[in-house]
Design brief:
By secondary structure, the chain is mostly helical. The protein has two helices and three strands; from the N terminus they run H-E-E-E-H. Strands 1-2-3 form a three-stranded mixed β-sheet. The model has no long low-confidence stretch (mean pLDDT about 90).
Length: about 90
């Protein structure tokens, strides 16, 4: 019983480390391409809606409040639904 619990904790820890590393790699890749989806970091980068990839805050603008961010995300997703990108 003890070893199965210890093994489970080890597996969860490895998965957590892998998730954090994946997040860091993806965030760095986005910053290198000139945008971010994070709402309170990197004011010098365009902020995008992570679902539609539409810019919701241009680089240099003030950070969005939670209500404004959600509103702009809904607008971006509605716009993206009406204007699909051809493959």
């Amino acid at each position: 019983m003890f070893f199965s619990l210890l093994g489970s904790i080890f597996v969860v820890a490895v998965l957590l480390v892998a998730a954090i590393a994946g997040y860091q790699v993806q965030a760095a890749r986005e910053r290198n391409q000139g945008y971010t989806w994070q709402s309170d970091q990197f004011r010098n980068l365009d902020q995008i809606d992570p679902a539609s990839y539409v810019v919701i805050r241009p680089a240099g603008d003030e950070y969005l409040s939670e209500v404004e961010r959600k509103s702009r995300q809904m607008q971006a997703r509605a716009w993206a639904a009406k204007n699909p990108v051809a493959p």
